[in-house]
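note to self: the first set is below, dont mix up w the second
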Amino acid sequence: MRYRLTFVVGLALGYVLGTRAGRERYEQLKKTARQVAQNPAVRNTAETAATQGRQFAGRAYHTVSSKVGDRVPDSVAHRVRSLRERNINGTPEDDWGTSNT
């Protein structure tokens, strides 16, 4: 019960302080977040992480498929093949219409 009370008090305090900060603070935080996101070092790091993630996912698929063999459902195997072919062909967008990087 004590933890619930502490949580509720913290939630109420955060709400009160947040509403007092108001729109100016929100805009300031938004501007800072945008500047960080547009920083070339951050963008390069995010791109590198995305590329490495794709590489690790491909390796993981090969490892799992070699151990599982033909027991991988056809729908999964087809989806992975189509993604791989699309990346090889240079299509810049994923299923949601966003860039792969």
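second set (the one i keep forgetting abt)
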Amino acid sequence: MDSTETVPALDLRISIEDTEPLIWRRLLVPEALTVEQFHLVVQAAFGWENRHLYGIQTTDRTGRKRTITDPDDGQDGFRAEAPSGVVLSELLDPAKAGMAFDYDYDFGDNWTHHVELVGSGKLNPAELRFVDGANRGPVEDSGGPFGYRQLMEALADDHHPEHSEARSWTFQVTGEFRPFDPTALDPEAINRRLRMLSLQWWPQPLTDQERSMALGPILWFLHAASGDGLELTKDGYLKPAVVKQALEELGWDSRIVGKGNRESQTPPILELRQHMLDWKLLQKRKGRLLLAPRGRHYIGRPDELWDYVVETIALPEHPAVYLTTRLYLDWLISGIAPPLTERVDVIRSELEAAGMVTRSGHPVPAEWAIDIDRTVRWNLKCLQLMGPKKNYFDRALVTDGGLKFALQARELAGQHVPEGLLLPR
């Protein structure tokens, strides 16, 4: 955000040692950032997924040796400090360019990030900035620099004996359909992930534009159904012209295959309309789709509509849907989600960890988890929470308004845990 006030910042160059070609980032971050926050900044800048422990061993600006480790490390014998209690300005003197420390991530693969102070700088309050860099971050669990080089060699050579296995494994871990390119770098995506962190650490009020964008699909239907409402076909579907208009005006053309003029073959519009009915914002009467009393109340009160939708999504009646919703909110907020191929298994695991079983005492079946996953996904897809993708292969990231929605929903969900539900740690 633009401001006449600024905060002192550190200009850092961070390189992952022993990578070829060298993987590095240059970042501008506030001096007052804690090591815990710095860890998450590094994760965002390099595309790591925060799956493993981390730590720093260094000599600080006063000459004192410091060991700072992940609180989950459990190595009390080291007399390690908690990352949340140490700020970067304790380790680096802004006036002494060249000072450095090593940040280690994943003690099994041993990814050592050399953090060098380039100099000092200024930032707007609530800002984290990517300045420059080269090459995509490594793949999680790829075996450290040596293992990652072997993986790149196998992926780059169609005739390599391990090529097919490497492709399959990489897709499983990353969920990326695109051809693997170790030199790829997306500054916009990095800055977007940094922005997501800054909004969590330094919250900003929801703007009218952010609210309108996130609620866009719901507001479109409320306005379309106002007055005399929308005429339905004899089978109870929206007229083809309305379906096509909705797709075009909501920018959802890319979500469907075909002409997009039959609601029964256009899941985004069909699901949105059904949710509007389930949420009692719309009603069917005499072959028309009309505003329900609740819809008439909210159509001119977007701030109240926002709170209503947040509560509706954050607090579903069924505990399994509630728990899965919390998972999805965490994934939205962190920008890190399991690959689609693993998502149902993750949901089943979380449900079992919460003590959920069938009436006969058996684990939750996969088909149940699939149905729960679909319910939660469509609840969120009826909103416009994600930004546009530059191309088919890119991963969409949450917008500012979408992040604020997810943060508010997660906070509300945390205040109203269903009785008797054991939340996984």
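remember for set 2: The first helix runs from residue 35 to 46.
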